[in-house]
Design brief:
Length: about 300
């Protein structure tokens, strides 16, 4: 039967049929590719941003169905994001209100302690109250980081006066730890920044410098230099220094490092918040340290032309 059939079809006719069918198949595949070319491009490149979910794909049923799935998925994602943002905002509001409520009893305790200022126990209690106050202050600044753009005012600041005010507010920790502050800043040096935020940064650097430099006769040097393009404010301590393996991670959130574990009372938040504040204000922060010699933290302010 097979031989008789093949006797009616020549070999070149078989080749023709195969070539014709192949041509028809190629045309069909080319047409389908043309119909779904945007879809294939999307599948090849992947989604690069959320707006890609709204790309106008081709008119084929397959492209339209996938486009509809992407839009529904995007809507579900947006709904989930809004829910998370709502919970996050409620949490921030609670933290801010709680911090303010806690500051009130701490202020009352500080006023009551003034009546017993000469007693040693009162001084110990006041020191612990100050630690609580600074911890609450740090929590409030951390909570406000996401709303930084709504909570800063750039103005011209006398750098020397800013440093003097901050050092005077922290004079008790200098006295207790027997650290001598030395300020080397010309009175005519001015920078553009936000007073509240940059003062918080400076306060963190001073507290860290004193905490890790305990000892009679040691100095905490705060100096500023102007080189024409920028002003560098340096906070230099003569403390224990930072191990080399930790120096690259000191700006990471919640990183305490070897010194933090050894001396305790380290939250791993101060330098992280300080770095983020400087970045948001357009300043740069760098750190250098040598074990058993000390640490230098530099803040670079751009000179406004």
């Amino acid at each position: 039967m097979y031989c008789n059939t093949m006797g009616f079809i020549e070999f070149d006719e078989i080749i023709y049929i195969l070539m014709f069918n192949t041509f028809i198949l190629i045309c069909f595949l080319a047409f389908r590719y043309y119909q779904n070319r945007q879809l294939y491009k999307l599948l090849n490149n992947g989604l690069t941003c959320l707006n890609d979910a709204f790309l106008e794909l081709d008119s084929s049923d397959l492209s339209q169905n996938i486009s509809e799935i992407l839009r529904k998925q995007h809507n579900l994602y947006q709904a989930e994001i809004q829910k998370c943002n709502k919970h996050h905002n409620e949490h921030l509001i609670f933290i801010n209100q709680w911090v303010h409520q806690m500051k009130t009893p701490l202020s009352v305790i500080q006023l009551l302690l003034q009546e017993y200022s000469g007693e040693e126990k009162a001084q110990d209690i006041e020191e612990e109250v100050n630690k609580l106050y600074k911890g609450l202050n740090m929590a409030m600044h951390f909570a406000r980081m996401n709303y930084f753009q709504k909570d800063f005012v750039i103005e011209r600041i006398s750098l020397r006066q800013l440093v003097l005010n901050t050092v005077n507010e922290e004079k008790k920790i200098f006295i207790k730890n027997r650290i001598i502050p030395r300020i080397e800043i010309n009175e005519d040096i001015e920078v553009y920044s936000d007073v509240k935020w940059i003062k918080f940064v400076l306060d963190q650097l001073i507290i860290n410098g004193v905490k890790y430099s305990k000892g009679t006769g040691k100095e905490l040097i705060i100096k500023a230099l102007e080189n024409g393009k920028e002003i560098k404010l340096s906070v230099i301590d003569e403390g224990i220094g930072i191990p080399r393996k930790d120096i690259k991670r000191v700006f990471d959130l919640f990183f305490t490092g070897e010194n933090g574990r050894r001396y305790g009372e380290s939250t791993g938040m101060g330098l992280y918040i300080s770095k983020e504040v400087c970045k948001n204000l357009g300043h740069e922060m760098e750190i250098e340290s040598t074990v058993n010699e000390g640490t230098k933290v530099k803040i670079k302010f751009r000179i406004k032309v």
